[in-house]
Amino acid sequence: MQSSTKSTDQAQSFDILLFDHFSNHCLANTVEPLRAANTLSRKSLYRWRFLTLNGDPVFSSSGMQVAPHGALRDGAGTTLMVMPSYEFRNLDRWETTRGLRDAARRYTRLAGLDTGSWLLASAGLLDGYRATIHWEELTGFAERFPEVNAVRERYVIDGDRITCSGAMAAFDLTMHLIGEDNGQLLAMDVAQLFMTQDSARSHSSRSHTSKTVDRASSIMLAHLERPLAISEVARRVGCTQRTLEHRMQAELKTTPQTVYRRLRLNLARKLVSDTDHPVSEIAGRCGYDNPSALTRAFKAEFSITPRQMRS
């Protein structure tokens, strides 16, 4: 299935090449954050398609069938993600190699997820690049492909090549791409939606945010109904307000006040969408003195009022 949000010319496109025995977990961790970014931004930031080598349906390792949008030979665009997962060595044959080499001329960048790095390397498409693979295969990968600079990292972005070590790392990678493309605040919003631990910085194993920013965000999340002064947030973090402001500006490109407001309004949006609570009650739960104040802030942030969103 493709994103239900209407696509635009500005959308980043991902073609995901699936093989029999692919990992449901890896696929979901790649696609769902993109879907969430579209939903939360109310924009078509990303679109995606599923491809197979010859256009036939494939089955995941747990038996889920996917009917693709097309064959690899018909694909072209921004990014091709190669996702074989299990039994990948059986796929290391001339048909796969030829298809990937041809595709490399039609895509801006190539990504190997889980064990997809092996197939890219076998096609000579990772020669001279830093790359990783599922860590259980890393030793064999390094021995089999000496032209590749194999490294033990969760994911690696080296120019127009991306490699990723497994399903959980796929989530980290996708969150990193969202942050790079559309800002760390949106990445933080997506992380909140998935209830990831330390959501202010969990979207990257090489985090863009420090413990100071992460701790401040956690304190803000714990005090949405009765917001604290920024000076009090900084005191509880263990730094000065100026230090907190400097860190957030450097790492999130915004102010603590903006982050706090964003967290409160994200909660308001969820309550508007998921409950039938009156706007007056939602305002109180999100730290606003009255419904009018919430409505003004809500419209400024989301370009729509709470009542319009409900209708």
Automatic annotation (TrEMBL):
Example GO molecular function: DNA-binding transcription factor activity
Record lineage: Bacteria, Pseudomonadati, Pseudomonadota, Alphaproteobacteria, Rhodobacterales
Occurrences of domain HTH araC/xylS-type (ranges): 214-311
Pfam families hit by this protein: HTH_18
The name this protein goes by in its record: Helix-turn-helix domain-containing protein
Superkingdom classification of source: Bacteria
Residues spanning the signal sequence: none
Keywords per UniProt: Transcription, Transcription regulation
Listed SMART domains: HTH_ARAC
